[in-house]
């Protein structure tokens, strides 16, 4: 009986969304695809502190050179990705270039995500944007000199990174 009730509710919900217009169904489909890709990409693994709010950042990523603190990827306008453009988000995920133009450290595995399509990245963005914004300023990375100089990533990228879908 419960199964039938649940199936009826889901069916009614989906039918209501379909009648609301194809744009809503497309948005729902995009967000759901983004949720799926976010799980496959294990975004929460780095962008969520154990016991913390999902995707709000602040998790230290330990490296042999020091800790890199993961950023907030919720849609918060000040501390998250809420004010980022689609192009800025895509550049961060697939090219390792942050919103300000600074090179990201490969702790953000852009070298693996570069082969994703822009459509996949935009689906991830759609999902992240659908989440509750969380205000969470991150602490500074604890990388000593010369590893704290992001421009040195240009050399790393020249040696180990090939961008492209």
Structural summary, described in words:
With 165 residues, the protein is mainly alpha-helical. Helices cover 47% and strands 5% of the residues. Helix 2 packs across helix 6 and helix 4 (86-95) crosses helix 6. The protein starts with a helix and ends in a 5-residue tail after the last helix. The protein has a two-stranded antiparallel ribbon. It has helices spanning 2-19, 22-41, 43-47, 86-95, 110-113, 118-130, 153-160; strands at residues 60-63, 66-69.
Structural class, from helix and strand content? mainly alpha
Helix content: 40-55%
Strand count, sense and closure of the main sheet? 2 strands, antiparallel
Instruction: Report the mean per-residue pLDDT as an integer.
Output: 82
Distance N terminus to C terminus? 48 Å
SSE topology sketch:
Blueprint: H1 2-19, H2 22-41, H3 43-47, E1 60-63, E2 66-69, H4 86-95, H5 110-113, H6 118-130, H7 153-160
Antiparallel strand pairs: 1-2
Helix pairs in contact: 2-6, 4-6
What's this entry about, in short?
With 165 residues, this protein is mainly alpha-helical. It has seven helices and two strands; from the N terminus they run αααββαααα.
